[in-house]
Amino acid sequence: MKLGLYVITDRDICGARGVAETVRRAVRGGARIVQLRDKKAGFDDQLRQVEELAEAIDGRARLIVNDRLDVAIAARDRGILVDGVHLGQGDARALTARQALGRHAIVGLTANTSAHLAAVSQLPAGTVDYLGVGVIRPTTTKPDHPPALGVDGFAELVANTQIPCVAIGGITLADVAPLKRAGAAGIAVVSAVCAAADPESAARTLTREWER
User: Does residue 140 have a known ligand-binding role?
Assistant: First the structure.
């Protein structure tokens, strides 16, 4: 699985342009994975959004649902193309998600500490496809985030796992090259794309910097 630019949605930040249109443009700009994250939305609302995003992506990127394993399962039951879930430490267990979605699904897991990495290492091989590691810098899109790791803290954590790690949290264009050198398998952003006047251009710039 090739990671690269990973875009996480935020309905408030996308504003009047809307999440689906923002995602459509971001994928045109090179985003490889899109994660639907909407903590305020209920089951039916999230299911509707998943369907809209699947249509906007049209198979050009992977679609992940944050937290809600039940939404991902329901979407698949309806024939909507959903590739997997991303789970926090307090969400449905990764092993449960793997069993429910099958071996070809993508299961991502948040990991911010050495204890998290130790717990992941106890899971059967193949349970988790990637780890979301952060935050790199303080960010307003997740007010309850843990202390910022910085690039050095990120590098120290990812050196202790063989699972691909996606850097997340307050990432700017200037962070892309240092994070890749530090061992990042991808970079996850919210505001850098969703708040951009031109999400396609913002995604393209980040992707080019990553690939460079």
Answer: yes
User: Is residue 142 part of an annotated ligand binding site?
Assistant: yes
Q: Domain map of the chain by residue range?
A: 4-211
- Check the annotation: does 122 bind a ligand: no
Residues 6+ apart with CB under 8 A from 142: 135, 169
Residue 66 annotated as lining a ligand binding site: yes
**Is 109 annotated in some ligand binding site?**
no
pLDDT, tens digit, 9 for 90 and up, residues 10-53: 999 999 999 999 999 999 999 999 999 999 999 999 999 999 99
Q: What is the pLDDT of residue 143?
A: 67
Tell me which residue of 79, 26, 87, 88 sits closest to 57, measured CA to CA.
Answer: 26
CATH class held by domain 4-211: alpha beta
113 is in an annotated binding site: no
